[in-house]
User: What shape does this take?
Amino acid sequence: IVEPCYLVAVQEKPARSHTRSHPQQPNPGTSWRERADLKMASKPHEAESYEDGHAEPEELGGCMGCCVMCCFGCLTCCGCRNVVCRKIIFFPPNPPFYKIEDQKLLRIPPDLLPHSEMLTEEDTKLMSHAKLARDLDVRVVRLKTSRGSEVCGCYITYPKATDTVLYSHGNATDVGMQSYAVETMVINCQVNVFFYDYTGYGWSAQQGQPSPAHVESDCEAAYKYLVETANVPPEKIILYGQSLGSVPSCILAKNHKVKGMVIHSGLASAIRVIKPSIKKSPWFDLFRNCETIKEAKCPVFVIHGTVDIAVPFSNGKLLHDNAPMKIDPWWVSGANHNNIEMDFHREYYIHLIKAFKEFTVLQKKGGVPTSATEYKVPVTKQPKTSL
Assistant: This one.
């Protein structure tokens, strides 16, 4: 298993002290590394160990929870839902983590990734052409969507790969930042990966504002490119959706018959992120993956951390339960929302490769199981710490 280069960059950084009581303010013109040290010094030390088992974060209960839901419902009636979505749901990186020059991808160095939330326009001058490991081929394309916007897509191919992953990334990231994780997936899983931005993200920020409707048209444009331009058969496509990316992945699994789908830290619906205990989606709920996934035309593999504080664990459990065709999930003990690939990278790729093989086995048997009990990936007990 090859470790991602951004993980190596994090591991090689010197330990920082957490003993300063008063954070220093950075002087104008300080480098990104100096700003990062000051920010880390101002944060209290956070415990790195988690209790075993599933721990749901506290949800908005009582009057507060009802008020939030009522306000969102009223704003929807007033036609302001898209405005609210842009403010509280979509968080495109600003500035973007990449540039496109002469149809080539320029991305930030991996040692900037741990401090990506402090990236400035000055830091973007450090971007360089993406030189992928093992001379992998990367193709940069511009996709025209049905809603009239253009989004950026990247296609990384692996020699003699048989399957292609259609990767839908999460929130607060873009093609540039995600390219490092995708590159590692291509090498470890020996697959081709096509990943793309949503309207309003990265290079596509000039094409309009992000919205649920744009997300759907963006993913359909990506699927159309693979099938019609790259000539990838639908039965060779594996959908992969991380966090917010679970939304377009579930839409594609409903609309098209593909080989399989991986949901990584996915949300059951927008309301269930803040109120996981709700039984029935209100009429104004968004991103109803828990309902869309019931019509998925492929087997589903769900990955979710048991102490996810961004998208509660119950969201992943509900998605797995509602999928009509599924293999055994991987509930990552002690994992949060964004640390599975880094802190559990070895187990992550072992499970992912196993799931891809299981999709192939099901396909060779002439179909997919009608229930999750027919074909299962063996469950491996997870250690308390990553390898």
